[in-house]
Design brief:
Distance between the termini: 49 Å
Helix content: 10-25%
Order of helices and strands: EEEHEHEEEEEEEH
Number of helices: 3
Number of strands: 11
Strand order of the largest sheet: 1-2-3-8-7
Strand content: 35-45%
Amino acid sequence: MRTPLIVRAVGALLLAAAATACSANADHGDAPHPQNVLYRADYPSYATAGELYAGASVVVQGHVESAQRVVRLVQAAPPGQALPAPVEAERREGMVVTVRTVKVSRVFKGAVKPGDVVQVKQLGGKLDGVTYTEEHGVPLRENGQYTLFLETYPDQPASLLNPVQAQYPVESGDGLRSLPGNGITTSVAELATLARK
């Protein structure tokens, strides 16, 4: 069963659908069974590194710490806007996100400095025996080094502008690797140039 949910993410509306793949059934008595929920989300797409940079409120390079937490994030209802009943029910239930801590080593944009930590959330995680996964999502690797294009919020952790286009694993030296499916290449030198403009 798919139920749509509209939530605020990355400066735009995020359309998500949760599908339960496994559930307990009467044939197996009351024994618990794992459940899997798949989120489908629609993110902005970018054509160049310059567009990514312009769209982000923070662009940093940093190390993903080993600690993470999985929480249910409940979005506030849009002011003065009535949502269809199924969408409102999903909004109240909230979205499961994994929050990771990134220790900043280099800043290209934003009100942070080297040594600061930034909390970054991504859809998905395991909570209360249920595994939530984002279709086409690429979780940040624990202890990985990344350059990230983020949207920040006053009351919740930052989000990647796009789960594939907005994260670049750092390779040896200052090399930045695009994830599969991301046609945008960039470099530390290009980001430093954008930062000086």
